[in-house]
Specification:
Keywords: Carboxypeptidase, Hydrolase, Protease, Serine protease. By secondary structure, this protein is α/β, with parallel strands linked by helices. Helix content is 27%, strand content 24%. Strands 6-13-12-7-8-9-10 form a seven-stranded mixed sheet.
């Protein structure tokens, strides 16, 4: 796997949205954060653009991403929000320049599609992390600090308190994954996630329990759990009860989907659509240790 170069003071960082529209106030806050890190933010043409719920029409969003990928002065590209839209344009993007001059691509939620595409097609690491739109709920120092560490190549190690549904064990493997529904939508495309021999990260937001179960069942039938080495479960936010009740918690739904496999499972990792969204480096080797005392996640390299 190719690891993009770490950032240093003075580097230019692209800021775009290839998905939904983001309010300008949060972009201004993001600019301030990047400048505090001594980075130079470069706003794309999708910033401030609007076309329905999108940050501009498909052609504009594709062109914005393309220009950021092709510009050798841009050392990282930060998505401002999730929502929906990357799936509509990604097959039209030329990654030739990016292939030979990789840079960090950052985001989560709808950016899951970009993560799995870049790892599968280009064998390049990316960063699952907080975005400008998260600033609507206030500045979360621990979320932004872990993103800074990931971008600047500093050590990442996480300790997570024990969860009653955790499945103990030690394992290591390349980390992949993202939002469960987006991973499900990517099945059968060239951007489909390859989970074989990997540690899989899953999180979700705003779904009914039966829908979460359907996504997991679909991923299972596609063989996405069969050769997984470990499962890291992030935030499961606003997972609504069904009528009649589904009969399981969101965590129990996930555990049920992987019950026949013997890999370790860690619940409660603070990443995804919750209040805290700590950075994860997809495409790098991760050591996962789940015990009765809690879980430890260490990134190598």
């Amino acid at each position: 796997m190719i690891i993009p170069p770490s950032l240093k003071a003075g580097d230019q960082v692209g800021v775009i949205s290839t998905s939904s529209y983001t309010e300008p106030a949060y972009i201004e806050q993001l600019e301030g954060i990047l400048k505090e890190w001594k980075l130079e933010p470069v706003l794309g043409k999708t910033i401030g653009a609007r076309h329905g719920s999108f940050a501009g029409p498909d052609e504009l969003r594709k062109k914005d991403l393309q220009q950021m990928l092709d510009n050798p002065e841009i050392r990282a590209v930060l998505q401002t929000t999730g929502g929906y839209g990357i799936i509509r344009i990604i097959d039209q993007v030329d990654f030739s320049a990016f292939k030979y001059h990789p840079k960090w691509l950052v985001g989560y939620s709808d950016t899951t599609f970009l993560h799995s595409h870049v790892q599968g097609m280009l064998s390049t690491a990316t960063i699952h992390a907080t975005m400008a739109a998260d600033l609507e709920a206030g500045y979360q120092a621990q979320s932004w600090e872990t993103l800074r560490k990931a971008l600047f190549g500093e050590k990442l190690e996480y300790h997570v308190k024990a969860h009653p549904l955790n499945r103990k064990g030690k394992t290591e493997g390349m980390l992949v994954g993202g939002t469960t529904s987006v991973l499900c939508n990517a099945k059968g495309t060239i951007s489909e996630v390859n989970s074989n021999g990997k540690i899989l990260f899953l999180e979700e937001v705003g779904e009914h329990k039966f829908r979460l179960d359907s996504y997991l069942t679909s991923l299972k039938k596609a063989g996405k759990f069969e050769y997984v080495r470990g499962l890291l479960v992030g935030e499961l936010v606003e997972i609504e009860e069904d009528d009649p009740p589904f009969g399981k918690t969101p965590e129990e739904i996930i555990l049920d989907a992987v019950q026949e496999y013997d890999f370790p499972v860690c619940f409660g990792f603070p990443a995804g659509h919750g209040k805290v969204n700590k950075a994860l480096i997809f495409g790098t080797l991760v050591h996962l240790d789940v015990s009765e005392k809690g879980s430890v996640i260490r990134f190598s390299g």
